[in-house]
Amino acid sequence: MSDSQTSGSSEAPRRNFFVRAFTAALGAFLGLVPAMFGLLFFFDPLLRKRKKGSAGAAAGEKKDAEGFTRLDVKLDTLPSDGTPMAFKVRDDKYDAWNLYKDVEVGTVWVRRTADDDVVAFSTICPHLGCAVDFRAGRQDFFCPCHTSAFDLEGERMNDIPPRGMDRLATKVNDQTGIWVKYQTFLAGRKEQIATDE
Amino acid sequence: MNRLLEWLDDRTGYRNLLNETLYEPIPGGARWRYVWGSTLVFTFVIQMITGICLWAAYSPSVQTAWESVFYIQHEMYLGSVVRGMHHYAAQVMIVLLALHLMQVIIDGAYRAPREINFWLGLILMQIILGLSLTGYLLPWDQKGYYATQVTTKIVGSAPVVGQELQNLVQGGSEYGHHTLTRFFAMHAGLLPALLIFFLVVHIYVFRRHGITVKNPNRGPSSDFWPDQVLRDSVACLGVLAVVMGLAIFKGAALSGPADPSEAYSAARPEWYFMFLFRFLRFEMVEHFGQAFGAIYVPGAVMLLIALMPIIALVRGGHRFNVIFAWSLMGVIVGLTVLSLIEDVRDVEHQAALAEADRDALRAVELASGPNRIPIEGAGKLLREDPFTQGPRIFAKHCAACHRYDGHNGRGRMVMTADDDTGIERPTLPTAADLGNFGDRQWWRRILTDYRNLMQPLENAGYDVESSIEYGMISWFEESVEVLTAEANQADVDAMVEYLVAQSGRPGLELNAELMERGEEILSTGSLTEGEISTCDDCHSEIGGEFELGTDNVGIPELNGYASYTWLKAFIDNPGTEQFYGENNCMPAFADKLSSSDMDLLVRWMIGDYAATEVKPYNSKVELLQIEIDDSSGNEVANADEQPAADSE
């Protein structure tokens, strides 16, 4: 591109258009490159394939092979009338670069059933994730945030929650006590979908 | 579409603004030499974009700063590229800044009526240097930590309010959480805000006076758009290519996590501050007091630059300014090059750099491992890692007598200065080289090269023939012919296999067939060709109870030889009957080492630590030895050939 071309010549408009278009494209490219890299980096939570908590270290102590965690309670200490009791679930927890060993990761409602088995519910409300409470007077589960209510079987008692309380798989062992497969599920869905799937 | 734009223009007047911006006339036409300002704005845009992205992932606290940067660099999507862009664009910005300033001075663009804008530019320069300084600390790695310590100490040496200023900057009298939060607030908040403000004013005033043109009749005038924009864009493309190339192919460094308890002898500022660093190293400068070199001289230079528009009023003033600018640039480049050359030639500094690299790689290796980073921070990973700490403990407590693969454990020669000449020479070891302690190589040398393995004891003045090693030496002299015979090498391998199994070290893979053959030879003493006396003629039988007979006082126990328990007990006190008894010459370390140091040292020596791909230290030693050989002639050749020994 030479400086000597003047705007008076007949080729000038075409040349000018080319120069303008090229310059504009180049300018856009210059802005786009850093913006694209920045944006992709910002989208890391969606784009990165996360390394699953490497089984060796994490699963060993707290979880059994099927992913069950032991609760600090045995069947015969649960009230025989089926009143639910809340228990903390302890596990190893990953958070970005940290690994927290043996910390409280959540709470579950556990109640004894007539046939000497147990049922366990996540305390996380399937509506929008507040903590579901047990109301002894009314014998129901109740979420104080948006008044979701559930019966003792975890079934919905009004239409506010999209589904019943999230039931967790349990195992009863005479020696070691009650084991629960602790999971969290997506809120606001009719179906029960685990968050880490 | 047109009507919409009409409406928009009516409400905002954007066309007027666009015209103002784009159709700035450039007398004499667009030129390449006007591009520097635009490239600076462009790099600043890169910094804003990448900086805000990094902000979204950075966590400023002592236990999370290095950790979050590690996470950005090694785990997050395109993290290393985005961090690399930010890192290198910052350095490119400094180069462009220097070019822009030189351009302005050479063209005399600081003269009336543009003095104010020149001063605005100088303020922008200070802000950018401030951004560089504050940004260097944020990863909270050893490099940034120790370099910034120097900077804040310089602040502390300022007259009258120095100490207060330093405490203000670092958020207290010591570095801590608030050093990071304050540096981060300055780096990502205050300084960018000031930069944007002054940049806007700078550009506004620049537009008011127009571009400085030496010769308006050089060619026909053109407008900023598109001719100059095209040139600016091409220059920016070049800048982008450099930044992306460095970010992708070189990547930003992250040294080990900052640890105030771990000295960092490789500390250097970023390369663009090296001239100042080197300037402060002149003893002469230090004689005038710390503030002189670090504050008054740079301050005076800045003042002189700021006075340029006024100096130019005097006849010949402009010429003086240009000469001064060139000389200053020459001094800066000269000092930088001098400093870099000195560092390359400085054996100690190179060893320190190599160790820093080793720590950096190891920290990343451990942080990426299955246990991730503990909540106490990544510093704990290195502090409790035998592979990292073992060599340091060895160098401190063992290397006075022992060597490790010929060096002191940390890849450095053990040197003594000659009393008369002051010339440093390698010190002769007075105990065995423990580089292979307890592994197959070690046993092979005991069986076939015992004399040389223990040679360093002679350096200590022991007459090997008649002293503690007598028994073992005479066995060796008797057996060496049989053990080095060609036909017996498979048998020696078998013996080695059986003996090395005693250590029970983690990860030791043993050949059962060989071990069986080894046990047979060691109990009968008969090899394929010839016979030897067996170990249990003197030592307690392997696998049997330790027996303390009158004859075997001071004959080391072979059960569990070189295992954790054995080695720890040995270092605790090598003078017990199970080891050397009354014949022992090595100090007992039970009281000299803390229990954690002892644990780290022993675990390092027996290889009990998370697997690593980091290279061992000795790769560097060869280089160091060559340099030492060159400087002190052939006298040291002996010392190098004998990879040392111990009172084994």
Explain the overall architecture:
The complex is a heterodimer of chains A (197) and B (648). By secondary structure, chain A is α+β, with helices and mostly antiparallel strands. Chain A has helices at residues 12-42, 44-47, 55-62; strands at residues 69-70, 85-95, 98-112, 118-122, 133-135, 140-142, 149-150, 167-168, 170-173, 177-180. Chain A is built from 3 helices and 10 strands, in the order H-H-H-E-E-E-E-E-E-E-E-E-E. In chain A, the strands form 3 sheets. In chain A, strands 2-3-4-8 form a 4-stranded antiparallel sheet, covered by helices on one side. A 3-stranded antiparallel sheet of chain A has the order 1-10-9, with no helix packed on it. The longest helix of chain A is centred in the first third of the chain and has 31 residues, at 12-42. Chain A is elongated. The two termini of chain A are 58 Å apart. In chain B, helix 6 (115-137) packs antiparallel against helix 9 (177-209), helix 11 crosses helix 15 and helix 19 (440-448) crosses helix 23. Chain A binds chain B through residues 1, 3-4, 6, 16, 19-20, 22-24, 26-27, 29-31, 33-35, 37-38, 40-44, 47-48, 51, 54, 56-58, 94, 96-100, and chain B through 29-30, 42, 45-46, 49-50, 52-53, 56-57, 64, 67-68, 70-71, 75-79, 81-82, 85, 219-220, 222, 225-227, 229-230, 233-234, 236-237, 240, 244, 367, 370-375.
